């Protein structure tokens, strides 16, 4: 609790009002991995945050403790609409090089989410404990059991007529089934692709993370046969331990425009 008090003390001069969040802001997904090539090492990160749309002018950021103990902010960007007047914001912590151009060493992360709108700061600070994530923790989910961790609204990268993607899920039980239900004709017909699990997973550029991750999350991969279509719509189904969980982009389904070489 003392650490979070220090976070808020640093934030106080930035905004006249501070508020803990009930449901105004919530972390959905976070990942961190260590990449290396040609003797250089760096840290890849990613965050998905859901906020309630309380006004046009708003900002969402990650407040994290840097290696020197100071607190820094890294801005997130609007990604897409979600359910019931909410939005998804995404981004990363850009810890690659110092001001003098030297590579920065990876760090274990301590952080909170800050949402500023209408002159008020709302915080998701993991109920006062802050969020913590090892430098090579891989994927982590918060409040959901399955999530599309590689969504692109526009995609021009194909294997023939196959569109690839990945899903992150909570490892609830050993026996499970992961499917992608999709359509290329506005749901006049529906196809089902089976996602596959592999013990080894490479995340981002030259970064290896054990699968499942140290915190118990798995990555599954899939390919959608999209033929010559220029758009695909899909949702993810996860069956485990007698339960079924869906990631349908918070009730809106995922939609990807497919760009092909001219």
Automatic annotation (TrEMBL):
Residues making up the signal peptide according to the UniProt record: 1-21
InterPro entries, per database record: CBM21_dom, CBM21_dom_sf, PP1_regulatory_subunit_3
A family per Pfam: CBM_21
Keyword field: Signal
CBM21 domain location: 24-134, 136-257
Domain of life of the organism encoding this protein: Bacteria
PANTHER family from the UniProt entry: GLYCOGEN-BINDING SUBUNIT 76A, PROTEIN PHOSPHATASE 1 REGULATORY SUBUNIT
Protein name: Carbohydrate-binding protein
